[in-house]
C-alpha cells in the first residue's frame, strides 16, 4: 500500500495559517452538517486528518464527560494538547483505523489527497458502530472558470493559469484527485452505508478573505512546482499580492459534504439521495 503523501506539509512555516484559513472557510458548513446528526453527548468520535483541530475542539465540547474524541493526523503538530480530545499520530494509508467502533467518523479535505482513498473510505465505513455515521467533506476543485471579477483580463488569465497548474498538475502529481468530492456519494453506497446524502456549497471569495488568501499559501508551499510548470517568480509574486486585492473575486471550490450511516441490523441499505437544493450560493460574500 502506498504511504500517504500530502501536497501541503504540516512542517511548513505557513501551515498554521493554512489551517486557520481553512477553518474560517469551512467550519460553518461542517458544523451545520454535524449538528444535523443530532445530539453527540456520550458519543465516540474520530476526527481523521484533524489538521489544526478546529472541528476536533468543537466535537470535544459536545460529547460530554461520557463521550470521547480522537484526533488523528499524519503530522499532528498543530493539534493542541489539553483541548478536550486525544491526539494520535496516524497514517490512514498504511495503518488500520484506530480503536473501532466509532459513532461518528469525520474527515475533511483528507482522502482526496491519498491515492488509496477508495480503500480508506471502505475501512472507515467498516469501523463504524451500528447506526454510526461517516461524514466525508471534500472540495471538487477541478472546475475551470475560477475568476468572477478581476482588475483586468491579463490578471484573470494569470489566475486561471495558476488554478489549472494546481489542479491539473501539482495535486495529481502528489497522488491527489481534485475531482473526487463528487465520487464520495457513490463510494459510500458501494461501502454499504445507508441514508447517504450529499450537500454542496460554494460562495465567492474576494481578495483579502480567507478563501482568496489560500492562493498565496498554496504558492508558498508549492512554489517549486509552479516554477517547474512555467510560472515565473514575478508571476507568483503578482498572484500572492492579488490574494489580498479586493478587486479579484474568485469562485470558491465546490464543497461536497457526504454522510452515510452504518446498518443497525447487519445489512445496510444501498439506497441514497443527493440533495443540492439551495446549497450553492455566490451572492453576498464578495467584499
Structural commentary:
The protein has 287 residues and is an alpha/beta fold. The protein starts with 14 loop residues before the first helix and ends in a 26-residue tail after the last strand. It has one domain: 3-Layer(aba) Sandwich (Rossmann fold), CATH 3.40.50.150. The radius of gyration is 19 Å and the shape is elongated. Strands 3-2-1-4-5-10-7 form a 7-stranded mixed sheet, with helices on both faces. Strands 6-9-8 form a 3-stranded antiparallel sheet. The protein has helices at residues 15-35, 54-60, 117-126, 153-173, 184-190, 210-228, 233-242, and strands at 44-48, 68-73, 86-89, 102-108, 128-140, 147-149, 194-201, 204-206, 249-251, 254-261.
Summarize the structure.
The chain has helices spanning 15-35, 54-60, 117-126, 153-173, 184-190, 210-228, 233-242, and strands at 44-48, 68-73, 86-89, 102-108, 128-140, 147-149, 194-201, 204-206, 249-251, 254-261. It is α/β, with parallel strands linked by helices.
Secondary-structure element string: HEHEEEHEEHHEEHHEE
Shape: elongated
What is the assigned CATH homologous superfamily? Vaccinia Virus protein VP39
CATH first level = Alpha Beta
Distance between the termini: 45 Å
List the helices and strands and how they pair.
Elements: H1 15-35, E1 44-48, H2 54-60, E2 68-73, E3 86-89, E4 102-108, H3 117-126, E5 128-140, E6 147-149, H4 153-173, H5 184-190, E7 194-201, E8 204-206, H6 210-228, H7 233-242, E9 249-251, E10 254-261
Parallel strand pairs: 1-2, 1-4, 2-3, 4-5
Antiparallel strand pairs: 5-10, 6-9, 7-10, 8-9
Amino acid at each position: 500500500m502506498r504511504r500517504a503523501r500530502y501536497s501541503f506539509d504540516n512542517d511548513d512555516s505557513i501551515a498554521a495559517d493554512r489551517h486557520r484559513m481553512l477553518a474560517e472557510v469551512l467550519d460553518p458548513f461542517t458544523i451545520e452538517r454535524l449538528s444535523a446528526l443530532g445530539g453527540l453527548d456520550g458519543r465516540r468520535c474520530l476526527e481523521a486528518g484533524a489538521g489544526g483541530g478546529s472541528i476536533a475542539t468543537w466535537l470535544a465540547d459536545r460529547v460530554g464527560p461520557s463521550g470521547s474524541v480522537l484526533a488523528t493526523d499524519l503530522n499532528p503538530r498543530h493539534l493542541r494538547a489539553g483541548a478536550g480530545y486525544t491526539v494520535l499520530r496516524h497514517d490512514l494509508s498504511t495503518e488500520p483505523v484506530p480503536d473501532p467502533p466509532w459513532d461518528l467518523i469525520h474527515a475533511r479535505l483528507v482522502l482526496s489527497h491519498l491515492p488509496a482513498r477508495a480503500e480508506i473510505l471502505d475501512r472507515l465505513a467498516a469501523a463504524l458502530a451500528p447506526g454510526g455515521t461517516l461524514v466525508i467533506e471534500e472540495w471538487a476543485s477541478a472546475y475551470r472558470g475560477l475568476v468572477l471579477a478581476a482588475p483586468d483580463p491579463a490578471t484573470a488569465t494569470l489566475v486561471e493559469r495558476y488554478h489549472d497548474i494546481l489542479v491539473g498538475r501539482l495535486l495529481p502529481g502528489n497522488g491527489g484527485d481534485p475531482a473526487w468530492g463528487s465520487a464520495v456519494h457513490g463510494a459510500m453506497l458501494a461501502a454499504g452505508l445507508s441514508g447517504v446524502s450529499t450537500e454542496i456549497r460554494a460562495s465567492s471569495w474576494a481578495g483579502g478573505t480567507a478563501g482568496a488568501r489560500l492562493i498565496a499559501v498554496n504558492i508558498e508551499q508549492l512554489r517549486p512546482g509552479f516554477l517547474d510548470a512555467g510560472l515565473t517568480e514575478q508571476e507568483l509574486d503578482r498572484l500572492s499580492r492579488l490574494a489580498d486585492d479586493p478587486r479579484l473575486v474568485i469562485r470558491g471550490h465546490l464543497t461536497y459534504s457526504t454522510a452515510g450511516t452504518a446498518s443497525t441490523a447487519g445489512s445496510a441499505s444501498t439506497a441514497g439521495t443527493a440533495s443540492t437544493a439551495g446549497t450553492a450560493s455566490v451572492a453576498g460574500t464578495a467584499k
